[in-house]
Amino acid sequence: MNRSIINSHIINNIRATIPFFRGLKFEPIVELDNLSVVAYEMLSLCDANIDVEESFNSLDMNRKRELFNHQLNLTNVINDKRVFINLPVSEILRSDFILEIKRTNIAPAALSIELQNLPDIYQFSDIELNEFKYQVKKLQALGVELWLDDLDEELIEYFFHLDVVFYGGKIDKITFWSLRKNKKLLNFLIMRCNLICDKVLIEGIESDSDLKLIRATKADYAQGFYWPATCCLDDSADCFFDEAA
């Protein structure tokens, strides 16, 4: 990726909104057929002494939206690879959401939106579910890839009956690690994901044996500490490869 465009000014602008924000990390998304990097997931780095998940959950929605908008603007200048950005699933219901994406002049084909907090969809009303499906179709028509995060059997079943097909779905690292010694069950889960997603990505790849295992499955993409991430911190204008990130 073109690391030179991610400088301390950009990082500090985000930190002005989110005080515990420390920088950005770009984790490679790897295609399993040829092991090429096809995209990066943009993640936030935070102060070491805080609980990251708890701190982000405690942010009000306006600050979460500001972070998302900063990430959208960055996506507009990182033009050598597709970029994954995380988004709470409920945010897709906003009437101005698609307009917000259009305002940034992003090439939609450069953007993948990873929908998180998926169990929240169980609380959607019938009207909200219809709006959700409508928004999904509009985003897909623009060329935006939509991914489902942390899929499990219950979510797969729910989305299957919702009759919506997404570009991709992710199997989280804890699920993968629990199935390392059960390739048959791992392949079954991948097959189930394919009921609602065209592509499947497995997280948590950390070793040669992990990589060998998933390359023998029906998965399409992989992500994990096996591939070094690119980190950009607020006290430096330069990016560097963080082997441990």
Automatic annotation (TrEMBL):
SUPFAM superfamilies linked: EAL domain-like
All residue ranges annotated as the EAL domain in the record: 3-235
Gene3D superfamilies: EAL domain
InterPro entries xref list: EAL_dom, EAL_sf
Domain of life: Bacteria
Pfam families reported in the protein's UniProt record: EAL
Protein name (Swiss-Prot/TrEMBL): EAL domain, c-di-GMP-specific phosphodiesterase class I (Or its enzymatically inactive variant)
